[in-house]
Amino acid sequence: MIEGYILLPQESCNGYYGIDRGLFEPLLIESEFEENIPGKKYTTVSSFFPPGWRKTAYELYEANQILVDDTFGILSDYEIASQIKNLIRPHLGDYEIFFTQITDQANDVGQLETCYGYDFAYPGGDYYSAIRNASQSLQAKYGSQLNEYGLFNDPFLFEKYIREFKKEITSEAESTFWIFRLTKK
Q1: Contact 165, 172 (CB under 8 A)
Q2: What is the largest CA-CA distance in the chain?
Q3: 124 with 185: CB under 8 angstroms?
Q4: pLDDT, tens digit (0-9, with 9 covering 90-100), for 18-55
Q5: How many C-beta neighbours within 10 Å does residue 150 have?
């Protein structure tokens, strides 16, 4: 299990407050790249950007991330997450900090307490959520088990739900999903 902090936009997506809604992380944005400087090494995402808020936020993120895989990292420290939140607010709007536990085993995650709930999503990339992108039949079957944040309260639904999701959404049959336990900080 991996634990750390993430930044998500404050607004929901139609009552869904999971990870599949614009997670802040270092991204390559070609329209904002610094001019190519001969001899400069571009080893991090932040190294592509000129001095400014984005470069500073990305540098903070990269220096304080826990790598989940080659494409995804979460922040190791709440104070760093707060600094990044304050840096990006004037440019990207309000974000909230969430503590998250990420795993592929329901036995690994903690119980609810002050948790928003559990999302079942890709462990990186676009964080495609099997909950947010459920078919109508899955929505009908599991909708009553979603909480007020559009997430499950029970991580033990993971295996059954993902199995059914992959049967109905055949394009996702070979996809990897993990459990994201989201707790607002």
Answers
A1: yes
A2: 58
A3: no
A4: 999 889 999 888 888 777 767 667 788 898 899 999 99
A5: 21
